[in-house]
Please model this.
Amino acid sequence: MDYSNEVIQWSYKEEDISQKFPFFNVLKDGRIHVLASYVPDHLKVPPTDDQVTGVKIKDVKILSAVTARLFLPPPQLPQRKLPVMVYVYGGGFCRRSALSMRYTRLVANYVAQCNIIAVSVEYRRFPDHNISASYDDSWTALHWVASHSNPHSLLSNQGLALSISFSLVVSYFEPGECFNPERISEFEASHGRLGSPCEPWIRDFADLNRIFIGGNSAGANICHTMMRNVKNKGLPRGSKVEGMILVHPYFGEDNKMWMYMCPTNDGPTDPRMKPATHDLAGLQCDRVLVVVAENDGLKGAGVRYVDELKNSGWKGKVEFLENKDRGHCFHTSNYMDNEAIIINQRIKSFIHDHKNED
Model:
């Protein structure tokens, strides 16, 4: 894994700026300066087991461009399989990192408090990439997790990325052989390397009929599009997304910053930013939790999401929580704040109790 943290020093004048957006400046010479609100948020840290909570942490490379940080709660030999959450961090599609101390600590706390496994996605960001990559990488991570329910799907998922055909993988392996290291080595000797398709923490400890996807801000936005993909593309047999958790979600019609970052957008009402009624009606999960903050400029977007979801004809259950007297994503920097603890408790209840009312 690459934990390098090169810091670029920027020096330019006001007249050098072509366009200003909340999170970055576009310079007349074509460069884009992402404005760091707090430098350590960008710094990546190696995975280190959490000594306070006992959560074990490691990184995996799903594909060449997609990394994830995995979290396993104590004890490391649970008596039953646990729900798994695919977590997508926020940062306006251009800032922060799943491998930062901020998000490592946040997700480790969720894992310890909720007794779940977590897969925190390190997706590609603007300006190095069109933000379509952010959506694609997050979907790749979800599909990879779900593929552990079906050995053929797991190996073909890796094989397709390396131009190895699904039919070749399926014809070569008998059921159960896909996790046999000797058979994998034999296949790779003849047909090319598959990589490391099987992750033991997911294979051994995750209940893949109880997948949750969750994220904050831009990550919550990505979660909605991931659910569109579940509907339109499907997940491997034996896996299911049970619920979606959107904390201080980033949506908004005719959002100029998002449209600049995504030049392939579908206009002011692109369904990734303004969820379409038919997408809401077709969400392939049973429950959705939406959290907003009272002093957040994006509060209205979260409230509209809840109202439109309820009115869409969707047959699931939506839950709603408002953080009193708090701003956007306050909980990511102060996860011991009283309102942050309330978020943790509600997520735990949402996953395990199924008893909260709208």
